[in-house]
Amino acid sequence: MKNKFLTLTIIGVLTTTHPSLPPHFTTIYAHNTTFSFSYQQQNYPHPNPAPNNTIIPLINLFLNILILGCLLYLLLLLADPRGPLSSLIKLNLFKGGRISRVYSELSKEIGQVERKIEFLADRTQRLEETNEKIHAEFNKKIAEIQLSLSEMSSKIIQLKEATDVELSLLQSGNEELKGTTQIQYEYKEIQTQTPQISPQEESEYSSLLKAYRENPNSLFHNAIQVALTKETVEKIMTGSWGGVVEFQEDHRRGDYYVVGDDMGSFYLFLNPDTLFNVQTLTDIINKSKIFQFREGPNKSYMGKDITIIKPALVKQENQYWRLVESGEIEFPVH
Hints:
Layout: H1 2-17, E1 27-31, E2 34-38, H2 55-79, H3 84-170, H4 175-193, H5 199-214, H6 216-219, E3 224-228, H7 230-238, E4 246-249, E5 256-260, E6 266-270, E7 275-276, H8 278-286, E8 291-292, E9 301-302, E10 307-310, E11 312-317, E12 320-325, E13 327-330
Parallel strand pairs: 8-13
Antiparallel strand pairs: 1-2, 3-4, 3-5, 4-12, 5-6, 6-11, 7-9, 10-13, 11-12
């Protein structure tokens, strides 16, 4: 308000007293602390011509000094960095720069938010498409499962009907059919209990078996002396061997010999010079089905005193020999 009043005062003095200024000011626009002036000069005589005396020059000189003082005061206000005008200008400039920075930061944040919204919208669309695909695949699998269940139910019904028919035939008192079935069952049981040796199988190892009975040392001249692996013995004793019986070469303490025939097959024989006690024969040899026997031993036997009815069949796998088919032995009758 102080600056505005000072400015208006200077303008009023200039327009009324100073003769060197234009004759007439037409418009004065003022808004806050900024003013716009425009004038139009008209070519008409002054209504009150000044009288020609010595007072007017003094007045003009006083006014000029006053105007110059006011101008110097304004310049001093503007030059003072701590003055009200400088502070006001700096405040306005600071506020304007701060507003610009805030606007710039807000614009960046708005841009980031818009990009995030676009990303989320795209991600949502993809998830919806994936969900639709999964839903369609799930419905397809459900339909396939239902079809499979229907087919299984139909087969179960058919099987039940066939079973009912067979039970009705068995319960109808057909003694001939029952007798034939019983005979067949007994025949199969006898076949299972009695070991069958085909002529072809007998011809494969019969020559080796004959040589073993006559002179074992001559048979084992080119044979491989083997023993059960430590892992196999431990698994047999604990009952976890799983039917896998392996031998490895042992030329000092091997309890068995591996002999090959002309057909490329390999057979396992007992070492005639090894003493087999009851525990070894029962818990190792018979339990692991290396050699099976019908009547267990009641004492220890040398290998040469045990009759080999059928040698065991083995095959080589890397550095080991693995049992393929069990042999059969029997002990002397006292």
